[in-house]
Design a protein that fits this description.
alpha/beta; six-stranded mixed beta sheet; 26% strand
Length: 247
C-alpha cells in the first residue's frame, strides 16, 4: 500500500444465508479524501460500510486500513478497528449515561486514557460542535440533531484515522439535517478521511471528492463528483440521479 491509501477494499462479498448482498466490491480511499456512497434503498450501501468497520463479517475479499489488514481476529485488527469512527442512522447513544459519560466511555476503557484526559478532550470537541452546555444532560433531553452531533463527537474522541457515516441524517427532521451536515462539512475541510452513505446530494456536491454509485450489491460506478453529477457513465446512475434530484 502506498502511504496515501487509507482504506482499501478488495473484492468484498457478503451473503446473508442464500441472499448475496455484496458482490466483488472494491474501493480505495486516499488519506484526507471524502467519498460519498449513493444508490437506491437495498443496494448494499450500509452493509458495505459496516463490513469496512468490522461490524458485519464478510465471506470473501479483504479490507485494509492504514496498512493493517482487518481480519476478524487478532489484536492489531481490533486496535485499528477501534480507530475507525462510525456514525449510524440512529444515534446509538447510551440512554442511562450523560453526554460526557457517553463520549468518555471508550477513550477510558479502550484507549486507557485517564478520566481527566478523556473529559478534557470531550469538552474541547463539544465546544467545537456548539454543544459545550450539554455535557451533563442525558440523550433523551436532546433533539435528534444534537444527539447526532454528540455521536460524531463520541467517534472523534477516539482519534480516528477515518470516519464512516451510515445515513447520518435520515432519521432527522429537515430543520436538524443542516446542523449535522455542517459539522461533517467542517471535518471534510479539515482533511478527515471519510466514507459517507447519504441521500443528501447537496452535501455530496459540497464535500465529496468522489462518488460511488451502488445498485443490487455491486459498485456500478466510481467517479469524480463534478463529472458524476454532470454525466454519469451508467444508465442506472442517470436514472437514480434524475429521481433524487427531482425532489
Amino acid at each position: 500500500m502506498t502511504k496515501t491509501e487509507m482504506i482499501k477494499v478488495d473484492k468484498l462479498s457478503k451473503s446473508f444465508g442464500q441472499l448475496q448482498v455484496l458482490k466483488d466490491c472494491s474501493l480505495t480511499v486516499r488519506q484526507g479524501e471524502v467519498v460519498v456512497i449513493c444508490g437506491p434503498s437495498g443496494s448494499g450501501k450500509s452493509t458495505f460500510v459496516k463490513c469496512i468497520n468490522g461490524i458485519e463479517e464478510f465471506q470473501d475479499g479483504q479490507v485494509t486500513i492504514d496498512g493493517v489488514s482487518l481480519g476478524f481476529r487478532g489484536r492489531e485488527a481490533a486496535k485499528m478497528r477501534a480507530r475507525i469512527g462510525m456514525v449510524f442512522q440512529h444515534f446509538e447513544l447510551y440512554p442511562h449515561l450523560t453526554v460526557l459519560e457517553n463520549i468518555c466511555l471508550a477513550p477510558i476503557h479502550v484507549l486507557k486514557r485517564t478520566r481527566d484526559e478523556a473529559e478534557a478532550r470531550a469538552r474541547k470537541l463539544l465546544n467545537r460542535v456548539g454543544l459545550a452546555d450539554k455535557e451533563s444532560v442525558y440523550p433523551a433531553q436532546l433533539s435528534g440533531g444534537q444527539q447526532q452531533r454528540i455521536a460524531i463527537v463520541r467517534a472523534l474522541a477516539m482519534d480516528p484515522v477515518a470516519m464512516l457515516f451510515d445515513e447520518p441524517t435520515s432519521a432527522l427532521d429537515p430543520e436538524m439535517i443542516g446542523e449535522v451536515l455542517a459539522v461533517m462539512l467542517e471535518l471534510a475541510r479539515e482533511g478527515m478521511t471519510m466514507i459517507v452513505v447519504t441521500h443528501e446530494m447537496g452535501f455530496a456536491k459540497a464535500a465529496a471528492d468522489r462518488m460511488v454509485f451502488m445498485d443490487k450489491g455491486s459498485i456500478i460506478e466510481i467517479g469524480e463528483t463534478k463529472r458524476f453529477f454532470e454525466a454519469p457513465n451508467s444508465e442506472r446512475a442517470r436514472l437514480f440521479l434524475s429521481r433524487i434530484l427531482a425532489h
